[in-house]
Amino acid sequence: MADVKGVEATYIDFTRKTAKYPKRREKEYLMIGLMNEAGEVGGAFKKEIRDHVDNTDLIIDEMGDVLWYLTRLCDVYGLKISDLMLNNIDKLFQRMTPEEAKVWRAENGGY
Ligand SMILES: [Mg+2]
Question: What is the pTM of this model?
Answer without folding.
Answer: 0.88
